[in-house]
Amino acid sequence: MERVWLEIGFGGGEHAAALAAAHPRTGLVAAEVFSNGICSLLSRLVPAGAEDDAPPPGNLRLWTRDARHLLAALPEASLDRVYLMFPDPWPKARHSKRRLVHPANLPLLARALRRGGEWRIASDHPVYQAWVDEVMAAQALFDPAGHHRSAGAGDRPEGWFATRYESKAHREGRTPRYWRWLRR
After folding, report:
1. Which of 53, 66, 80, 88 does the annotation list as catalytic?
2. 9 is in which domain, residue-wise?
3. Does position 93 have pLDDT exceeding 70, yes or no?
């Protein structure tokens, strides 16, 4: 593989499946702890009735535990890109430590991402959007590579695949925001 990317919390798996298909020379690790999401991704990859012998994409691996454990175990600077697409906002203060965008978790992610590697974040939740702005403004590990505010589905940055969470946000009148950060 020419490079290795990680998608954290892939939800229904549509984004991870699209990435794996569009970038066959890129190794993709898709991390998700919830069974429904894992089953959803697998159902996208394996045709019904072919569960026993259909090969999964050769460039895709699944991680079914907390992604923070994977980030801690990966060799330093081993990732070229990380995706965090429409994460659960964990709006209660006692849950905020579970957010990957958290001062305590940023060094873990930065250690695994190579210098110049890209971290892509998308969220439609106003509390999480404000949290990303606040946390990332106070850190010194990543530089902004661009920041986009989307007014509609067509405003998603080029090369980003749509997700069902993004579609739901538009249907419900929420405006997704997209960030790109580069590892210093």
Report:
1. 88
2. 3-183
3. no
